[in-house]
Design a protein that fits this description.
By secondary structure, the chain is α+β, with helices and mostly antiparallel strands. It has 5 helices and 5 strands. The longest helix has 14 residues.
Length: about 180
Amino acid sequence: MNEVTLDYRLYHDRAVSLRETMLNLFNRKTRTENFRALEDVSINIDQGESVAIIGSNGAGKSTTLKILAGIYRPTSGTAVSYGRIASLLDLGVGFHPDLTGEENLMLNGAMLGLCRNDMKLLVPEIADFAQLSRFMDTPVKYYSNGMFMRLGFSLATAVDPDILLIDEVLAVGDAEFQ
């Protein structure tokens, strides 16, 4: 990351009904303001390095990780990453609630650039490591937070990423899995 700045737009005057929304379209403007989440942040991480970002709540740690993962685009500056990136940033991100554990693994594997045959070989290994073999045919909307975390972590580490980004999501894991 080189001199990255990220601004969020904060919305005020939230409409609470369809009537208010329609009135806003014709005669009222929604008030907004920009909130600067990051300003001129530069980080260079070399191959093989492990880095921890530490700071107080609201310091921009998660925002920085989301920029590195390509989820957010900076308002200004550049963020370039090389290699396969796997991320565990928010619980359940990248999982579709109506798909089963196995279907979600297949979908996420495809998004990470793995072919169907490679994923078919990895799924039993991931399910076993996550201790979820019995639940792979169950839609993930029925998973607990711990099950979500174990499935996501197991997938992220099984695909052999060049870059692994982890936020506070691991806080939900039970002692045995951690």
